[in-house]
Amino acid sequence: MNLKRGYYMKTSIIVYSKTGNTFYVGQRLRESLEKLGQKVVLERIGISGSEESGKFELSNSPDVSEYDLLILGSPVHGFSLCPVMTKYISEALAKDKKVICFVTQFFAFPWLGGNRAVKQMKSLCTQKDLSIIYTQVINWSSKKREEQILNFIDKVLTVYKA
Questions:
Q1: Does residue 31 contact residue 150 with C-beta atoms inside 8 Å?
Q2: Which of 40, 43, 45 shows the shortest CA–CA distance to 18?
Q3: Of 79, 62, 80, which is closest to residue 71 (Cα–Cα)?
Q4: Distance CA 107, CA 85 (A)
Q5: d(Cα 160, Cα 55) in Å, to the nearest integer?
Q6: I want to staple 117 with a disulfide (CB 3.0 to 4.6 A). Which of 40, 81, 110, 152 is the partner?
Q7: Is 89 helix (H, G, I), strand (E, B) or coil?
Q8: CA of residue 24 relative to chain centroid, distance
Q9: Interhelix angle for 21-35 vs 145-160, to 10°?
Q10: How remote is the C-alpha of 94 from its chain's centroid?
Q11: Quick one: which of 145, 160, 88, 91 has its CA closest to 114?
């Protein structure tokens, strides 16, 4: 989906990242968008409690009301979308936003949980009447990781180019 340059006045990249890998991709994307002159914010979802036990609350739940485009990034946990991002999408996101989704996973192949996590993310977004523009799985242990990151950034940048 190509849109005229400058169509999105404000973009928010919202990530949940335990190890820093997902946040790293968000940082790279933010830098690339800023070079295009886009107004972009990178925010991290925070939690209090234990994600592993399932007993947690969102301690930092970024408000997206002022943004035109949301880019959501999450790690894959247990071959599925991590519970923190599931909760964030379910509880914090409003209708009628354009969304780009990406997940990072340790395994080298997207069929080892990445594809499933993206499918879950898309389903949650669709239930909230969010319009999905693009999705990507980034495989952290793949020899092609850097290529995958650059491909993702390039795909996102095409949204801004006429």
A1: no
A2: 45
A3: 62
A4: 19
A5: 39
A6: 81
A7: helix
A8: 12
A9: 40
A10: 16
A11: 145
Q: Which residues contact 159 (CB under 8 A, 6 or more apart)?
A: 1, 2, 3, 8, 69, 100, 133, 134
Res. 156 pLDDT band, cuts 50 70 90: very high
- Bridge-based pairing of strands 131-139 and 10-15 is unpaired
pLDDT class of 26 with cuts at 50, 70, 90: very high
- Quickly tell me which residue has 């925070």 as its tokens: 46
> Can you read off the two tokens belonging to residue 44?
């991290």
Residues in the chain: 162
Cα–Cα separations (whole angstroms), residue 5 to 8, 27, 160: 8, 21, 5
In 3D, which of 159, 91, 111 has the Cα closest to residue 131? 159
